[in-house]
Amino acid sequence: MTKRVILLEESGVDLKGLPYSMGAALAEWMQEGWSVPAGMVVKTDGCRAYCTRLGQLSDEIMEELVSAIRQLEQQTGTSFGGPNHPLLFDVRSDEAVSFSALENYAISYVGLNDETVEGLAHQTGNRFYALQCYLAVLQQYGHLVHGIPYKMTFAKPAASEPYFSGETELELLIEEWKDLIQAVSGSPFPQDVFTQLQTAVRAVFCSADKMNHGADPLEDQTKEEATNGSAVLIQAMVQGNDVNYKGSGKVYTRNPATGEQGMIGDYLPSRSKSGMVHALSYLKRNNSKRYTELEMISTELERRTGTVLELTYVVKTDSVCIQHVQPARLSSLATIINAVNFVHEGLVSKEEALLRMRSEVIAAGMQQELPELKILLEWADDIKELSILSKVEHISEIWHARAWDAEGIGLCTTETMLLSPSRKPYMQKMLLAETEADRRRGLERLLPMQQSDMECLFEAMDGRPVNIQLFDFPLQELFQDENVLELQSNDSALVLSQIHEMQLEAIFRAAVKSIRKGLWVRPEIMIPHVEHVQEIQKMRALVDHVADQVLGEERRHCVYKVGAAVTSAKVAWTAAHIARYADFISFDADTLTQSIYGNTREKTAGRELVEGVTAQMECNSFHTFSIEGLGSLVEMAAAQGRIRKPHLKTSITGEHILDAACIYFIHDIKLVAVCCKPEQIPWARVVAAQAVIRASHNNQSMKNEDISTIA
Q1: Could you give the C-alpha distances from 527 to 433, 471, 500, 545, 671, in angstroms and in order?
Q2: φ, ψ (nearest 5 deg) of residue 127
Q3: 163-178, pLDDT tens digit by residue?
Q4: What's this model's pTM, rounded to 2 decimal places?
Q5: Which SS3 state, helix, strand or coil, does residue 174 take?
Q6: What is the 3-state secondary structure (H, E, C) of 286-338?
């Protein structure tokens, strides 16, 4: 029969099969001769029984649990539930990859009740400490089992009471928490220690599982969710029944706030009657031998794991006992600094360091202008395959994009330039011109302004591609009074065509001037809102014509491209036809999402939709990139375009494409580039590298599976 409760000392192969098992690590250290508190692991299938049997263990599992407890009692010389030298347990998730947040998913001092708390007081010679422990288990039990917030306490000394000791206050708080648990649950805090333990195991298992699945802790857990939780680690808490117990504390292998090398933490001596915690230097001054041992343990564990660790330890007369180890929760600054240092120290690879980065960490590093961040970004550039381009709406953003090493401009929206406060009056005057000659003169005034913009672009992006989207703005919206301008559709199309022609002349004039300055110019002219293949064909002819007229002998030095913006599902479906005349296509994820959602909304017209549901649909549609919906459309269009033109450049831009899952998908469907805001470039560089690393790991796993299958 498979055992479901495994003692650490007898784990053997039983725990090594558990992924990310802290118990397996502790068992290994125990076998190597390290001082580790005795304990056991309730494996996942054993924990699962709690959620499938309404919190009741089967007789078989209960028999295993009792047997393991009896062995621990013999090893420690304590008694679980006994009045003298009580055995107390720390119950927490067995996941070794959990962060400090799992402190909220642990219950310590399980086994304390109204009787054993006095036994602990006698055992330690410190009743204040024993009452603190009792209050802790009540608070953790109430929080994890019944969802009671830690702040729900209101013990106050009576105003008339002449003396109010620390013990008295703790006793009042203990009674308050008992009453609170009774009021919330309808049942008293269990004085039976076995009931305490069973309930603690169930609460830790289910709560950690919900956290791992991103579930709401207030929701009921389904049976399906309960089948994927981790095991639960139960360890005897080292209190010491004589002078052998010297103190305890918590230590970080490096500073979790600054990333500074060197152990940092605290220490609580056993003889402290006040319960005051000291800095770690207190241990160094008073017991240098144990301090050195703790330092060696910290260094060795960090070397093995390649992670900054948080250690809970106990100092005994003859050794330091490691009670619990978990990855430390680091500040963004420390995350970046440690990632770089760990690579330099040979503890982790560059790939592993990059995989540890998150968007908020990179953002914080940018704000603090960390030199180490530059190193990480250089590593990312060596690995990534996607080009990271910048979107710019104003000239001032160009140098920002260049500062963060954008590989080019993926989208420059020229309407924001022509409609700036200083230029909008010129646009309005040109549109209100009564004669064709006046309109031409208006365009001639705008030409040098637009040319100046292009020169700035080419100078900043010397040698890098610059995607310039031609003017794309409803002309009527330039006027508050719509009656001022009543252009017919044909007139509107003609004026827009004239604006585009002016812009093309500005682009190529700027190119000539920049080339003669010694710059390498690579303009990519994007046609907005292409609906038919004839449009891209016609615009391509216009671009080539203006280029011939303006570039002259510099034509051989200006390698320009013409492409289309894909902004609707209709255009996406015709990507193969558009690719006949386009050098590139750029998917506008935001406009595509709105277009698809708009179509869906029209189809549902007439249905009675709940207002709240509709609002949520809008929020989800406009603020997320749907891989299943929009992603499939983009994948299809890109593939069809490449069938027609194998070297077709495909890129995507959007507000919500930079989460890891989206970039992984964009990498997998082999788009060439991602376009984002300048401030998003560093994270895009990192997550693009993560996509390559992830794909490599997946491919390696598949190869290993194939080898295993063949074998």
Answers
A1: 26, 9, 9, 15, 19
A2: -70, -35
A3: 345 889 999 999 999 9
A4: 0.81
A5: helix
A6: HCHHHHHHHHHHHHHHHHHHCCCEEEEEEEECCCEEEEEEEECCCCHHHHHHH
